[in-house]
Amino acid sequence: MDPLRRLCLCLCLPLLLPPPAAPASVAVPIPGPNWAACKSLSRELSRLVATLKEPHVVLVSEDPKNWPPRIRCSDACDPSTLDTNNTRCLHRILQGLQHYRDLLSSDIFTARRLPRLEAALDQLLRLVQKEPARPPRRPMAPSETWAQPLLQRLALQRLQSFSTIMSRVFTHSAGPR
């Protein structure tokens, strides 16, 4: 076989063969909290908030700048992202847990302490935090006594919404792999 024909075959043969299989990308989960424990505690928190009896229903509109941390679509708490990178989602959950723990220890709940709810929040915080816990902050200026029941109701409604979403995140992450 002449050298020119051999060169053509060597150059064209790879074009006739099927392309090599792409290496399988393996998603390496980022180590995080004990998902099963977080799942259990977040469900307990949701259950506790749902069992609280409130004296009345009040609709309060607030300035969106003062809203507590919420889990949003941009926080990457969806199942496909949680399997590969849960850092942003856990950070948002940590912010929310700290906010509600601070709120429950504020003057809003002075006359009505909720120790079981506070304990559940503290346990979840210990599981989710990577660094030592920060001391509780006072999230707002002292409230008027007459406004405390209204603020309690609003805080508990928002905590219930937050804990429902958080529980779904932990339920997914604690599922079988």
UniProtKB/TrEMBL annotation:
One of its GO terms (molecular function) is cytokine activity. Keywords: Antiviral defense, Cytokine, Disulfide bond, Immunity, Inflammatory response, Innate immunity, Secreted, Signal, Tissue remodeling. Residues 1-23 form the signal peptide. The keyword Signal applies. One of its GO terms (biological process) is innate immune response. InterPro entries: 4_helix_cytokine-like_core, IL-23_alpha. GO terms for cellular component: extracellular space. Its main location: secreted. The keyword rRNA-binding does not apply. Heterodimer with IL12B; disulfide-linked. The heterodimer is known as interleukin IL-23. Interacts with IL23R; this interaction enables recruitment of IL12RB1. Belongs to the IL-6 superfamily. Associates with IL12B to form the pro-inflammatory cytokine IL-23 that plays different roles in innate and adaptive immunity. Released by antigen-presenting cells such as dendritic cells or macrophages, binds to a heterodimeric receptor complex composed of IL12RB1 and IL23R to activate JAK2 and TYK2 which then phosphorylate the receptor to form a docking site leading to the phosphorylation of STAT3 and STAT4. This process leads to activation of several pathways including p38 MAPK or NF-kappa-B and promotes the production of pro-inflammatory cytokines such as interleukin-17A/IL17A. This is Interleukin-23 subunit alpha.
